[in-house]
Amino acid sequence: MLSRLPRLGIPLAVMASGVFFVSVSASAPASAQEAGKGQAGEGQVSEDPVARGEYIFNAAGCLGCHTVPKTGERLAGGRALKTPFGTFYSPNITPDRETGIGGWSEADFVRAMREGKAPDGSAYFPVFPYTSFTHLTEGDIRDLKAYIDAQPAVSQANKPHEVSPPFGWRFLLPVWQTLFLDESGLPEEAGRDEKWHRGRYLVQAAGHCGECHSPRNFLGVVDHDRMLAGSASGPEGKAVPSITSDPDKGIGKWSQGEIAFMLEIGMQPDGDFVGGGMNEVVENSTSKLTAEDRDAIAAYLKTVPPAP
Amino acid sequence: MSIREGEICVSNFITSKGHQPLDIIRRTVIALTAAGALLAVAGQAGAQSPQPVSSDPAVVTQEREKTMKSMGDAMKKISAYVKNEGGTIDGVREGAATIQQASHKIVPSLFPADTGIGKIKDSEAKPEIWKQWPQFQQAAQKLESTSAELVTVAATDDRAAIAKQFGQVGQSCGGCHDNFRQKKE
């Protein structure tokens, strides 16, 4: 597949430079891509933690949940996330000291991402995908904080969640976390190359694809045997398709290049364009990755086994 | 609204002007008729209900899916050129024209209110289309303008410019699908 890349020539260079998506800031792509290349183990790692953090920020798609689409202040939270357990409102993650996370230490931030705990020790609902983010490297988490700290502070108080008992009982969450939060990281798999590992990292840790694309049990726990096999009740209660290598239920018939192209501009092999939230993911996240990283994601997804 | 104004009018006649009963009835009739006519005009303008391609919602839905499929095929054709995977500039021009022509049909005739999810089997049209009609129209107009621009750009052989505009059209497709389509499994 890599051999295909040079043939794409100018058009893909145009796309990769972010011309497609107005939301990409004019100056950012170069540094972000440099950082991304560094993450991919190719070329130079950016020396600027903010630039590296921006790449992680995009790869993790933070913007989508932490901003009310179109009308909201950037990263000030308040977006309603409807789940089978109730409606959650994302919090303000701008550096505002009163209403955002401006008062957090680096250790506070790492603990939130890795252990799902607020600085005061209280537990976060797993709608914040720390079960995925726990697999991020500490370096990436620190860079992410550097980027978020560099964003404009917005004073906007958080909205309380609307979750019915017993799911709304926050004191039960530590039990849930003890049972279901696996902080052991992503083990190296023998016989897989660096690209595959990079793809898995982007899918499972940063991109947290499985949070929407995997089925969950009645306690909201992702079914690991059916990882990425689709969900009947995704965001807004709508079905989310399987992205395993299953040729019928999943995307097994897609070529690696077709998967990468979908992540870049949203087009599926049949010419249809994704919707239902995925268009937002493409715009906010996957279109901003390097071509190498999109190809790594595609390479990894091609190896995800069909659900039993 | 108009009727209420008419009523206020009538009550004013009774209380303040002291007209004869017959006069009041006549004026009431005139006021109500005028209000009714206004309301009818306002109703038409507000709903902007275009002529559907058929009076049978099932037929309209089929026609809609056929149109969407034709646009998907056209995008596929254009992408083959953009990705340099065997596509031709003639294919791009043909595809761009197909999308532009189809985009004119979308709002006017392919989305009558009785063709949404729950009303027609296998419909993918979310009720939000009719709840947020102005936003839906705006999204549809975006496809009209971006595809018209693609037709213009396709007249050149500038692959980079075509690729860029192809992305804009793609964003119009995805933007609308994001809010207004629920894909069946």
From TrEMBL, chain A:
<keyword id="KW-0408">Iron</keyword>
<feature type="signal peptide">
    <location>
        <begin position="1"/>
        <end position="32"/>
    </location>
</feature>
<feature type="region of interest" description="Disordered">
    <location>
        <begin position="230"/>
        <end position="249"/>
    </location>
</feature>
<keyword id="KW-1003">Cell membrane</keyword>
<dbReference type="GO" id="GO:0005506">
    <property type="term" value="F:iron ion binding"/>
</dbReference>
<dbReference type="InterPro" id="IPR014353">
    <property type="entry name" value="Membr-bd_ADH_cyt_c"/>
</dbReference>
<dbReference type="GO" id="GO:0020037">
    <property type="term" value="F:heme binding"/>
</dbReference>
<keyword id="KW-0349">Heme</keyword>
<feature type="domain" description="Cytochrome c">
    <location>
        <begin position="48"/>
        <end position="152"/>
    </location>
</feature>
<keyword id="KW-0732">Signal</keyword>
<feature type="domain" description="Cytochrome c">
    <location>
        <begin position="194"/>
        <end position="305"/>
    </location>
</feature>
<protein>
    <recommendedName>
        <fullName>Cytochrome c domain-containing protein</fullName>
    </recommendedName>
</protein>
<dbReference type="InterPro" id="IPR009056">
    <property type="entry name" value="Cyt_c-like_dom"/>
</dbReference>
<keyword id="KW-0472">Membrane</keyword>
<keyword id="KW-0479">Metal-binding</keyword>
<dbReference type="InterPro" id="IPR036909">
    <property type="entry name" value="Cyt_c-like_dom_sf"/>
</dbReference>
<dbReference type="GO" id="GO:0009055">
    <property type="term" value="F:electron transfer activity"/>
</dbReference>
<dbReference type="InterPro" id="IPR051459">
    <property type="entry name" value="Cytochrome_c-type_DH"/>
</dbReference>
<dbReference type="GO" id="GO:0005886">
    <property type="term" value="C:plasma membrane"/>
</dbReference>
<dbReference type="Pfam" id="PF00034">
    <property type="entry name" value="Cytochrom_C"/>
</dbReference>
<dbReference type="GO" id="GO:0016614">
    <property type="term" value="F:oxidoreductase activity, acting on CH-OH group of donors"/>
</dbReference>
<keyword id="KW-0677">Repeat</keyword>
